[in-house]
Amino acid sequence: MTMSNIRGMRGFLASSIGVTCAAALMLPLTPSAVAANTRPAPTAEAATTAGDRPAPGHTESLPLEPLNRTRATPAAPEQGLPPKDVRRFSLIGVVWDNPDTELHGRVQVRTRATATGAWSDWQDVETHNADHAADPYTAERASGRVRGATAPLWVGDSDGVEVRVKAEPSETAALPTLPTGLRLELVDPGEEAPQPRPVTSRADAPANNLTADTAAASAVNAELAPLGALEIPALTAEQTRSELLTVGGADLTAEQQARPYIGPRPRIVTRRGWGANESWRERKFVYTKKVKAAFVHHTASGNGYTCSQAPSVIRGIYRYHVMSMGWRDIGYNFVVDKCGNLYEGRAGGVAKPVLGAHTLGFNTHSMGIALLGSHATSKPSAAAVKAVARLTAWKLGLFGANPRGKTYLKSGGSNLYAKGRNVRLNVISGHRDGYATECPGWQMYRKLGSTRSKAAELQGR
Question: Which residues fall in a compositionally biased region of kind Low complexity (predicted)?
Fold first, then answer.
């Protein structure tokens, strides 16, 4: 791939990976070029043990039942399931037929721990998840496979479940109603596969049991790490600036050559590092032209995980996004755990402008960074907040964006801004700045000012 393939990208982003995996690495320049040659949506049992793929997980999908059918005059529709033995799972969510229908109501679950047999207290599941989605009118949104869904909730290793969903009044409905086709999704993310040694060349890939899809997902990071690498190593500020000047110096202005504003590259765990099964996603990578802004999110999946479990939580969310919700890949471009570890999200290359499905209406020319957890009332860890600053200082610096600055993005249509409107936003924004939502939670949102300052400082501004 040459610089002419991706207009507006800095020179160092050009890649030399086009000699192999050609079908998997055809890179469309704009979101509109994505429709052709995509993989059919996988079934819930699509994961199989092969090569370096993770050991198979599964998704058990259970239709919800009316809970108040015997009441003469129920106050509001209620659906759910009584206590039930199920296959082992660790992540839970509720989906329904129409992605444009919002669930106005309360979703609560109780789960039984596999290790102890004890039932948890009732836990609330975040219902407003429509705002984490592909933009309207894109091929991903119009695929016919997308469903409405709650946020996923991480509950740990469990083998029993009880759920209740109760409708509540809304501004758009005279009587409380529930969406049609409500189903409970119980996700087992599968075990992380043993990782063979890092690969140094494509010829080495078969010996390390890399599938074509895994090799393709790794090859787009080839300028940053060896093929098959489990992580992209951190660089010092000087090394990062040197890399930028060496590879892309001819495309930089005199001022940028004298003092490029870019933060040191942070360590990033690759998709292979967290155990992504690359057979689940669609094959092609989809790009926007540039990255002008970063939207910060939380996954609303709960804080009850350990950092050693973070790869499992990410695999669970990935499976939920693709298998249960019908997306082409995990929606976020990056994920950050409570220990400050950074993870590659949607496939396509961490240094490239990969089109995500994270901020409805504003996915073009932006990236989505999700803190793994819930931060409406719980403060994010200092390590996670620092990781967001490090990531934005580097990635925004690749595209010349000032973390303290503002930029304009054209809305693709959200509940705050009509389609086509040019909206002035902070270069580092919270999800709620583009869509009326609680995300990324007030406790994280209030940290964005200091995050902008730290990211700018890391860029040398």
Answer: 38-50
| Assigned CATH topology for domain 58-188 | Jelly Rolls (2.60.120)
Beta carbons within 10 angstroms of residue 441's beta carbon: 27
User: What's the pTM?
Assistant: 0.83
> Among 81, 107, 110, 84, which Cα is nearest to 179's?
107
Name beta bridge partners: 59. 187
Spans of all domains in the chain: 1-54+192-461, 58-188
DSSP letters along 167-204, please?
A: E--BTTBSS----SS-EEEEEE--PPPPPPPPPSSGGG
3-state helix, strand, coil in the chain (%, to 5): 20, 20, 55
Taking only the tens place, the pLDDT of each residue in 334-360 is 999 999 999 999 999 999 999 999 988
Strands 334-336 and 366-371: parallel
CATH, domain range 1-54+192-461: 3.40.80.10
The values of phi and psi at residue 314, to 5°, are -65, -40
Contact 275, 192 (CB under 8 A): yes
Whole-number Å distance between alpha carbons of 394 and 313: 25
What is the rounded distance in angstroms from the CA atom of residue 282 to the CA atom of residue 165? 32
As a whole number of angstroms, the distance between CA 179 and CA 347 comes to 32
Q: Which of 446, 419, 418, 421 is nearest to 432 (CA)?
A: 446
